[in-house]
Amino acid sequence: MSITSFHPPRRTLMGPGPSDVYSRVTEALSRPTIGHLDPMFVGMMDEVKQLLQYAFRTQNALTLPVSAPGSAGMETCFANLVEPGEKVIVCINGVFGIRMKENVERCGGETVIVQGEWGRAVDPAAVEETLKAHPDAVILAFVHAETSTGARSDAEKLCALARQHNCLTIVDAVTSLGGSELEVDAWGIDAIYSGTQKCLSCVPGLSPVSFNQRAVDKIQNRKTKVQSWFLDLNLVMGYWGKGAKRAYHHTAPVNALYALHEALVILQEEGIENSWKRHQLHHNALVAGLEAMGMSMVVPADERLAQLNLVTVPEGVDEAAVRAELLEAYNLEIGAGLGDFAGKVWRIGLMGCAATKTNALFCLGALEAVLGKSGGCKAAMEIYQK
Questions:
Q1: Beta bridge partners of residue 112, listed in sequence order
Q2: What is the span of the domain harbouring residue 59?
Q3: Cβ(62)–Cβ(210) below 8 Å
Q4: 81 and 212 both lie in a single domain
Q5: Coil, strand, or helix at residue 105?
Q6: Please, are residues 151 and 121 in contact by the beta-carbon 8 Å criterion?
Q7: For 150-202, where are the alpha helices, taking DSSP H only?
Q8: Per UniProt, which keywords does this protein have (predicted)?
Q9: Which residues, 6+ apart, have CB-to-CB distance to 167 below 8 Å?
Q10: Does 9 sit behind a cis peptide bond, omega within 30 degrees of 0 on the bond before it?
Q11: Distance between terminal CA atoms of the chain?
Q12: Residue 248 in this model has a pLDDT that exceeds 90
């Protein structure tokens, strides 16, 4: 056997994630590894918590990155907050709502589904009706930014409804953190999870989470043990708590946390609100270009994510062949549709450091060439010139 070192091609990542990674972040990965209980590392952990609080817009003490991808952040929320027999209302308007339902059931909970239309925001009226019909429900779970459809739900309104009916909320912000307006404290979000590989432009493999005091109280007063030892926050809190003395829980991914620290420093330097505005600007230009080429967006404008764009594949076009040609000829990755949208749409991401004028125009120009269309770049430039 003569396997040699792996050297990946340099792609432009404009799919649903991972996004392109800042060069400063990849440099941070290469810094010397130190022990996960080293006082210098513990000091950096405290800074990561502060930076995540800034990104989430929260003062929650229990704010930390789970040492695993976003799916583990999701499981952390459900495993800690759902006990056997409890009723949980789950909003499903795409693939990741379905995964929430799976988590509830694996925790022994009973799910009540608010079924929404794919490509649309969760309907607050349907949620309110369900909350009234199930006064014994203890949690409302929904996806803020549905990665499979590009739809953004009104988290502020949904959380207000949940609180009126004495329900905790679990919110999926994997694609929204850093790219869309998100106010954990102001909106009253009880538990939230995200990922590092989307709008933070960090490497995949960590999942930022945050829990307010209401959620912490429920975790600390469970009648049953959390079914996962690794994700049990009663144990993890001892490692991510305050002070220099930390209880050993697991060997943290030291270099990956260097990378997250650097990505969050970059976000802080830009300013979270400026990041939201940047994503919106390049989204507006991309949409103008796609529509000028005769393509239509799936999600209504007022429910659309800026960082994840669902566009209908033109009639008669082999969507997989187009994606393959973009990858082979242009080293450009865009995403396929999932679930109900498989084979019908492209998912074009503008996330983190990939949300730039250069990338928006590059993607439009490549699509013009592959599809034999024109006018996309011109329409986008008109947005930029405004």
A1: 89
A2: 23-268
A3: yes
A4: yes
A5: helix
A6: yes
A7: 155-164, 184-187
A8: Aminotransferase, Pyridoxal phosphate, Transferase
A9: 89, 131, 137, 138, 139, 140
A10: no
A11: 59
A12: no
What is the rounded distance in angstroms from the CA atom of residue 205 to the CA atom of residue 199? Answer: 14
Where among 268, 283, 298 does a domain terminate? Answer: 268
Nearest to 263 by CA among 313, 323, 200: 200
Residue 320 lies in a domain: yes
| Tens digit of each residue's pLDDT (9 = 90 or more) over 62-76 | 999 999 999 999 999
* 197: amino acid identity, one letter: Q
Residue type, 114: V
Q: Are 246 and 315 members of one domain?
A: no
* 43 Cα distance to chain centroid: 26
Tokens 């933070």 identify what position? 200
What integer is the mean pLDDT of 127-153?
98
- Please report which helix (H) or strand (E) contains residue 44, including its range: helix 39-56
* Helical H segments across 83-183, by residue range: 95-106, 124-133, 155-164
Half-sphere exposure of 157 (CA within 13 A, CB side): 11
What is the C-alpha to C-alpha distance for residues 272 and 264, in angstroms, rounded to an integer? 10
Cα separations in angstroms, 147 against 115, 143, 197, 254: 17, 9, 13, 28
- Quickly list H helices, 223-356: 233-236, 254-270, 272-292, 319-330
Q: What is the pLDDT of residues 143-161, one digit of tens each?
A: 999 999 999 999 999 999 9
Token pair 């967006």 is found at 297
